[in-house]
Amino acid sequence: MPPDLESNVAERLSPEDLLEAWHLLIPEDRLESFRALSRPEAEDLFLSLGARDQGELLRALPPPERRSWMRLLAPDDCADLIQEIPHHEREELLSLLDDTTRKEVNGLLAYAEDDAGGLMNPRFVRVRPEMTVDESITYLRRQAPEVAGAMHYAYVLDPEQRLRGVVSFRKLLAATPDQRVSEVMQTDLIKVPEKMDQEDLSRLFSTYRLGAIPVVDESGHMKGIVTLDDIVDVVREEATEDIQKIGGTAPIDAPYLRISIVDMIKKRAGWLAALFIGETLTATAMGYFEAEIARAVVLALFVPLVISSGGNSGSQATTLVIRAMALGEVRLRDWWRVVRREVVSGLGLGFILAFIGMGRILLWQALFHTYGAHYALVALTVAASLVGVVLWGTVVGSMLPFLLRRLGFDPASSSAPFVATLVDVTGLIIYFTTAKLVLSGALL
Amino acid sequence: MPPDLESNVAERLSPEDLLEAWHLLIPEDRLESFRALSRPEAEDLFLSLGARDQGELLRALPPPERRSWMRLLAPDDCADLIQEIPHHEREELLSLLDDTTRKEVNGLLAYAEDDAGGLMNPRFVRVRPEMTVDESITYLRRQAPEVAGAMHYAYVLDPEQRLRGVVSFRKLLAATPDQRVSEVMQTDLIKVPEKMDQEDLSRLFSTYRLGAIPVVDESGHMKGIVTLDDIVDVVREEATEDIQKIGGTAPIDAPYLRISIVDMIKKRAGWLAALFIGETLTATAMGYFEAEIARAVVLALFVPLVISSGGNSGSQATTLVIRAMALGEVRLRDWWRVVRREVVSGLGLGFILAFIGMGRILLWQALFHTYGAHYALVALTVAASLVGVVLWGTVVGSMLPFLLRRLGFDPASSSAPFVATLVDVTGLIIYFTTAKLVLSGALL
């Protein structure tokens, strides 16, 4: 936290600092510091914690105290909390809720955690189209205390609970008191089905710059609302997952310092072992060229240089395409446009590296006479292979996310290490084949 | 967009579809489709576009039409738009604004684009503490039409414009009409200085689950508010930048399909060339072991396998740490905890790969007699180097982001390719040194 901020929040230090430091404390210290707070401070802290932390804290408290904390949570946050605790303790926590809330929470638990139904809050402010603005404000005054904090819209439902429109509290306040709600409400509104995936939902929030989106069932009955504050968490979570996949790890659903080392190794070993097994093909590939290497050891010196260039350019291309897909900038049907761009980029980048590589070999030869009589041919081999390998890496790296998505996998699984491994094997073949063509009769 | 959604928004097809397809259209088509919309539809579309697209569209319109579109924008959005257009055209657009707005926009342009001052909207709803709830609602009715859509809070200012508290419209509606604003307002509120960086700001939004944060100057005068919808864009932008850096590219500030190929090559060539030059050290390193390779060509076969394992494990470690830092889960002072974890993980992962690698060599030897008389010693060399290289890659990969942050650079610059390149050179040294120790007297 920057120093400017600290001076600004200095007057209310302890609960905020506790929240900041929460992930660094051991569970016993958490409980102790939590108990040291006044009730209102403790409530603020509890509500600011994520569902996982709320669950851990609740389980650390003695059972008689739990009920009053569960009551603080809106039904969607209750459901999130319950999904974070072990199955055999769920019933007990559910039994602490009043009947209405328990029914709502059970309803939410039936949805997948990452679709609109699982994210929505089933409590929202409802008004009737035929009410006057003044009547609706009086009516709102009665509903307002029951709905969660982030809500700023009233939804206009007909007697069958079908969604007819929406009006913000701000607009109600600005309207003349005797207008009808139906006159001030907005009727062309974005609504989503319960099954919509959270990633599509978050794109919708950002495309239309919305504060809340109502969720409706197939017959248009309103089921709840998803608010922007839930979506910020989604955007962050999805980016974290993508970044971890790009780095070649299975997504780690917990903060780095809190996951156990055994789990950490498990999450990483799978991909690493798979990549390693893929990479053993390089030993096989090089085995085929063992005779060439024996005759011209100088060739072996440039193997890491040539194949890593393919890996690096492929990893650039793949991360750019993965992110562009996640942001909706590139779709499956754009693959041909992407190929054309990447062929040009790959050739451009390949020639730049070939130029540098050739210069490096000629310079070293002039200075140290390192590379023998056929140094010019060796330089040509390296330069020509670089163009081929970089072009190949770029095209493979950019196309792999398309292939993965087409097959129904997450394009982000096309990690930098995955692409590098794929390109290493083919890079070797490109390099040694080029060598055979250029050097036959001279070194080979 | 999934089919469920399309059926839901089918009744208002054209402007939404246009928005979806915007990035795929050529500029002429954009202008033409935009002009085909009714005025209210066109306004919705214009307001949904990002600042860059708004700017491009505006510049495509004939000058006399521009004023009425500029007027639609809140001052912070105006400032964003102006930052997206070439310098020499800015004055002309600014001159289209009325005096008050122009002053506000000029004020905002003085802030850096990515601090709180640059993100904030200088228009907000203000009330006085001594007003009754009823008076404040009447007062709000007059202010409401002037402030932007995402605003749901009234800020309580004293006569010197210092921020005393905040009250949501919802809470005002729920209060009894003759209570004082000072009785219902919340006084312990989070506020930030104008200079706060957007990344810290976004963490604050998510830690405290806020909808809006007021920005104050050094004497506590309120300057504006930052709202959650601006922060969603920030979170997305920062993740995109991090992902591009992790992939080894300079951040690309435009959608993938819209940046020119020349700019694309420029953004990628810098890092790629730097990595390539670093990687030429592998040729130097291998040069030192040329004699060993000539005597035991079998050693060269495993070079790509061994060094890529270091690169892959390093790239896992670095992306995990970069993301944990960006989320605030890991701070500079945690470096020692991270080292300890990564040493254990690195050893664990190293032994797993060593086991697989040894098995692979022994199996191939049994099946094809590929690796000569000293195959067992070769297998031992590969296995022992794998433990060393993976451990080394993991530790280097996890520490590099700390080092970069400590030196004032962005930890995300510790890209997967960067770590792989660093580890390749040292990996070669580990491998050939191990080989000398294990094989001396036998093969070497």
TrEMBL record, chains A, B:
The chain crosses the membrane at residues 343-363, 375-404, 416-439. Residues 120-183, 185-241 form the CBS domain. It is a multi-pass membrane protein. Signal peptide: none annotated. Its main location: membrane. The keyword Translocase does not apply. Coiled coil: none annotated. Acts as a magnesium transporter. Homodimer. This is Magnesium transporter MgtE. It comes from Eiseniibacteriota bacterium.
